[in-house]
């Protein structure tokens, strides 16, 4: 079973996945996979990123996951293009801005990602692409607290009865559109 952990860059996906790995979860860091195995069609110098070839990414992820029922967490802001079940990490734009600045992103890249978060870009894409979408707020919390929420959601999914979990983490809880301009 593949569960995508998606969200705007800086929302804490990799930090959460590192903790999950430490707790024995199988994690695929998709952005590393794309770069290490050249699963991209071109390099976007201007935006300091690559354009992933999602068909090749999908087949490679399926190869790595196989058909066992072990949960695999797919760590990437593009994981919602691959997984049918996703957990979207959210961060209030003002805090996301500080996190991205601390990562020495350019002003333009910070602004691009802060605006995307404020406009719910990844959440909307996830709802369009995926069957099951959960949303977790990371604002003012550390990665350890966020992992607890993620594990609660995973347990709910595995139990087959995610109604209670879904009500607690259903998408669309935030409106940060006023916070980005
Ligand atoms: N819940 C959190 N609260 C505060 N800072 C966080 C949290 N999660 C991650 N960070 C910090 O934010 C930055 C981005 O985290 P990272 O896990 O790389 O995000 P992503 O993988 O979503 O781009 C890192 O400096 C990390 O230490």
Distinctive features:
181 residues, alpha/beta, Rossmann fold, 5-stranded parallel β-sheet, two-stranded antiparallel sheet, binds adenosine-5'-diphosphate
Q: Please identify the oligomeric state.
A: single chain
Look up the CATH topology.
Rossmann fold
CATH architectural grouping = 3-Layer(aba) Sandwich
Which molecules are bound in this entry?
adenosine-5'-diphosphate
Number of strands: 7
Shape: globular
CATH H-level homologous superfamily name: P-loop containing nucleotide triphosphate hydrolases
Count of DSSP-assigned helices:
8
Radius of gyration: 16 Å
Q: Summarize the main sheet.
A: 5 strands, parallel
> Helix/strand/pairing class, anyone?
alpha/beta
CATH class: Alpha Beta
Q: Helical proportion?
A: 40-55%
Between the first and last Cα atoms, what is the distance in angstroms? 39 Å
Low-confidence residue ranges: none
For the record, the count of structural domains works out to: 1
């Amino acid at each position: 079973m593949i569960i995508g952990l998606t969200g705007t860059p800086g929302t804490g996906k990799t930090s959460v996945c590192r903790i999950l790995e430490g707790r024995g979860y199988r994690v695929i860091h998709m952005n590393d996979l794309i770069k290490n195995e050249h699963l991209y069609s071109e390099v976007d110098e201007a935006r300091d990123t690559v354009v992933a070839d999602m068909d090749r990414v999908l087949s490679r992820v399926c190869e790595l996951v196989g058909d066992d029922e072990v949960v695999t967490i797919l760590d990437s802001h593009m994981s919602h293009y691959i997984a049918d079940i996703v957990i979207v990490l959210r961060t209030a734009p003002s805090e996301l801005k500080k996190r991205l600045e601390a990562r020495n992103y350019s002003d333009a890249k910070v602004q691009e990602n802060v605006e995307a978060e404020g406009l719910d870009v990844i959440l909307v894409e996830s709802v369009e692409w995926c069957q099951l979408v959960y949303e977790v707020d990371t604002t003012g919390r550390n990665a350890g607290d966020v992992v607890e929420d993620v594990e609660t959601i995973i347990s709910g999914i595995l139990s087959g009865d995610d109604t209670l979990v879904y009500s607690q983490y259903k998408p669309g809880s935030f409106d940060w559109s006023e916070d980005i301009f």
